């Protein structure tokens, strides 16, 4: 085949409709990294914001709510610039997938037991948080309402 014809042919991976067709288009983070001082700014920004999310998530873990979800979101932000965070995020995703797969393979009695244990744990954390923070014993207050 003549060289002129080969120059204008597209590689199969860049043909229309292929998912990797636009891999040469610069991504927004690549444009930031290309700017003067952009790489350092992105590293500092990702570190500060991601670190703050991780710390906030860890503070919220013992409380009811999305503590672990916020920790994982913080890891995702850190993973933009730090390889250790990418590895930790992959490990976390694998473990979460393994746990979910294991639980889905179990019958409804085991799922019910795990759900009940989770509910009891969350209830205990709420009780302890309210008891320590406000000095209110929710169990005693609830028992008082049930006995009236």
From TrEMBL:
<feature type="transmembrane region" description="Helical">
    <location>
        <begin position="67"/>
        <end position="89"/>
    </location>
</feature>
<keyword id="KW-1133">Transmembrane helix</keyword>
<protein>
    <recommendedName>
        <fullName>TIGR02611 family protein</fullName>
    </recommendedName>
</protein>
<feature type="transmembrane region" description="Helical">
    <location>
        <begin position="110"/>
        <end position="130"/>
    </location>
</feature>
<keyword id="KW-0472">Membrane</keyword>
<keyword id="KW-0812">Transmembrane</keyword>
<dbReference type="Pfam" id="PF09656">
    <property type="entry name" value="PGPGW"/>
</dbReference>
<feature type="compositionally biased region" description="Basic and acidic residues">
    <location>
        <begin position="1"/>
        <end position="11"/>
    </location>
</feature>
<feature type="transmembrane region" description="Helical">
    <location>
        <begin position="40"/>
        <end position="61"/>
    </location>
</feature>
<dbReference type="InterPro" id="IPR019099">
    <property type="entry name" value="Uncharacterised_PGPGW_TM"/>
</dbReference>
<feature type="region of interest" description="Disordered">
    <location>
        <begin position="1"/>
        <end position="28"/>
    </location>
</feature>
